Amino acid sequence: MRKILFILSLSVVCLVPQAAFAVNLDSLLNVLDETMEGSVRYQKEKESRIHELKREAGQLDVHSSEYYDLNMKLYAEYKAFICDSAIHFLTRSIEWAQRFRDEARGNGAKLELSYLLSSSGMYKEAVDMLDSIDRASVLPQQLARYYMCFDRVYGELGYYTQHRANAGYYWAIAQRSKDSLYALLEPDSEELLSLKETALRDAHNYEEALRLNDIRIGRATSGTQLYALVAYYRSLIYQKQGDRRREMFYLGLSAISDIRSATKDHASLWMLAQLLYEAGDVERAYRYMRFSWNDTKFYNARLRSWQSADVLSLIDKTYQAMIEKQKNSLETNLKVITLLLALLFGALVYIYRQMKRLAKARNELQSANKQLNTLNEDLRRMNVCLQSTNSELSESNQIKEEYIARFVKLCSTYIDKLDSYRRMVNKKLSAGQTADLLKITRSQNALEPELRELYANFDTAFLHIFPDFVKKFNALLHPDDRIVLKRGELLNTELRIFALIRLGIEDSSQIAEFLRYSVNTIYNYRSKVKNKAGGSREDFEEQVKSIR
């Protein structure tokens, strides 16, 4: 999880606007907090590598050049880890070179020791070590490191000296060393890019300095000493620009890489602590400063202790003042809480008495509520029955109105037909056509048109009241047994039987009388249709009655 957050922080650093940078800084500081919690693991990994190198050294012949090389590897591991141990292994390497008269290796170890001494604030010792080296004996491949040492120690002396007259002298030596480095270093080397970036930063050409830093930070791997150093240099550019947010962000990145690489010789964390202190985050500044101070003591370098001591003292005093203020505030709050507790106890006694009264009233109210609920339930059931009755009455009224209208119309129609029939009979009798009259009265065909008209009127009236009756009736049947009407049919015999049942005519004899069938035939129709029901056969007719 920490790796993911760290990678995300790196990926968005150059993409987010200034307004959103504070959010990324907060996320990065959270990553830094987690990295600090895991610092013991990184230190153990470093100690494990050192232990393995020492084990290998114990198995080597002290006369071999491999012994020298292994001492230099141990120095490289200790260089930013424990200063005294780094000096010890460089000293052993120098002694080995002097014993076996290997001037080249001796000069290499002396140059590294001089650089380390100047980085640790031991400038006199660093100068003396440089003076002990014969310039003529320095190999061409060592010249760049030689001038770096001069640049380092005299640059530091020029920055920290209290004697202004000597400062110019020291700066001149450092500048001459830089000029020599410009001629010696490869154009695209890390060392030359670092020199150029520093020069551009000092010349206030921040845009070009950032461009060179982009190249350097793109080459470095996060979690390494190099990445921590390049990120630290980038923070210095933002410091010059007055961009405190980005300065803090890159100090945070540098500090994370310092911790992950078990680098105890670092400045990023205590500088970040100072900025956080100035921003008002005293608690986090105190934690960072204490962590940095413990690393500084572990590294045991005079300069780092001197650099961070004042800041630690200031932050520590402020933090202690804040703790004291919080303590006083806590005591005041405790007194207030005690008073509030006393008031609360009195309030609880009063509330308890009121609750007893309320409990009595609540019991009485619950009893009344139960009676009211019983009445409400009775009323609800009555309302449901009333609604059902109203619905049935409304439906019954609609049926009555529809069929009364049809009945009046049919009566009028049949009176007209009866009158026509009377005139036709009168005419036949007057003409002496009694035989024709007997023939007409004996035939059943005269009733067929009247029955068709009767059923057509019934079908039309019924479907006017229940337009979806056929569809809903079929929905009650099994899909394979649903009724399909012929062209021009509104209802067929089966549907008319159940239409009459829907209208409340359930007696098979009444249905048979209306449809001109025998009672047995009506019974068979009803049974046949119920056998086709998709659900319960017994509930089928009740379901038909509920069709709306």
Written overview of the protein:
The protein has 548 residues and is mostly helical. It has 23 helices and no strands. α2 packs parallel to α13 and α12 packs antiparallel against α13. The two termini are 66 Å apart.
What's the β-strand tally?
A: 0
Number of helices: 23
> Terminal Cα separation, in Å?
66 Å
Beta-sheet strand percentage?
under 5%
The largest β sheet comes out as: none
N-to-C series of helices and strands: HHHHHHHHHHHHHHHHHHHHHHH
Helical/strand content category: mainly alpha
The percent range for helix content is over 70%
Gyration radius over CA: 54 Å
Overall geometric form: elongated
Subunit arrangement of the protein: single chain
Identify low-pLDDT runs.
1-20
Task: Return the average pLDDT rounded to an integer.
Answer: 82
Topology, please?
Elements: H1 2-12, H2 21-37, H3 39-58, H4 65-78, H5 83-99, H6 103-119, H7 123-131, H8 140-160, H9 164-184, H10 190-202, H11 206-219, H12 225-241, H13 244-260, H14 268-278, H15 282-299, H16 302-430, H17 434-442, H18 448-465, H19 469-475, H20 493-502, H21 508-515, H22 519-531, H23 540-545
Helix pairs in contact: 1-2, 2-13, 3-4, 4-5, 5-6, 6-7, 6-8, 7-8, 8-9, 10-11, 11-12, 12-13, 13-14, 14-15, 14-16, 15-16, 16-18, 21-22
Task: Give keywords.
23 helices, elongated, single chain, mainly alpha
Task: Write a compact overview of the structure shown.
The chain is mostly helical and 548 residues long. The protein contains 23 helices and no strands.
